[in-house]
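Exercise: predict the structure of this protein bound to guanine.
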Amino acid sequence: MILYTKDISDNIRNSIKDEIIQYTKNFRAPHLVVVLVGTDSASIKYVNAKKRACEEIGIVSSVIELESDISEKHLLAEIEKLNCDEGVDAILVQLPLPKHINTNTVIMAINQKKDVDGFHPHNVGHSLLGLDCITPCTPKGIMRLFDAVGYDLEGKNVVIVGRSNIVSKPLIGLFLEKNATVTITHSKTRDLKQHTKKADVLVVAVGKAKLITSEMVKEGAFVVDVGINVMENGKLCGDVDFDNVYEKCAFITPVPKGVGVMTITMLLYNTMLLYKNNLENFNRNKI
Ligand code: GUN
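Solution:
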């Protein structure tokens, strides 16, 4: 079954929208600020999609556009301004950043209470320990898919291809929480196929078009394709050779209309969580 995520996503977005309608009877709307450094065309596309999604459900979004040669010091100062601004609930620094900027330094500069990506070490640590925190959007969106189709992960062999901080590493903790057996593979893994063939659940997040071919996939697998690759003809394509793989799968997410939609939905969800947390603190301070 091809798992188009629009309906799952729309349900979540509609309930966030309803919540915002209720909250904004008494309070200001939630506010997400996206910091975009440089003019990477993919990043601009993603940021525009995030902005559009915010507008559709009543989240205020601002984009701060900075030159690609901005110094790290200047970028950190911009983030500090946002940290101190009570009218800002959520901060997202679009990645990747230019090479002269240390990504970890920037992530660590974001107030953990406004870290909508869940990339700050505080949130990463809390997530691994199963404590309350903001979980990164793509992993969280992926986990929602299993819930939505009623797929029980307990005891399942989950194989993740890729070892990124954004997707793969957070997924380890989330799958373990569901009692799955997790294997991480990456560019130095020997005989990738030997691992992927055993996967009841195969998550691919490396950014290599059609890396996963039919003979690498087990019959009846649940395949989650996180890759977004732009082909020569301008079309998008995942990391899985979709046309030759989908018939083998119990479930497979397409590209586009799959994981990417869920990532944006979870960004809206996380923004709402931070907003509510911010309001609670605000009310507490007033008392
Ligand atoms: N670049 C690609 N994916 C993401 C994401 O989830 N968050 C941020 N901040 N940048 C990204």
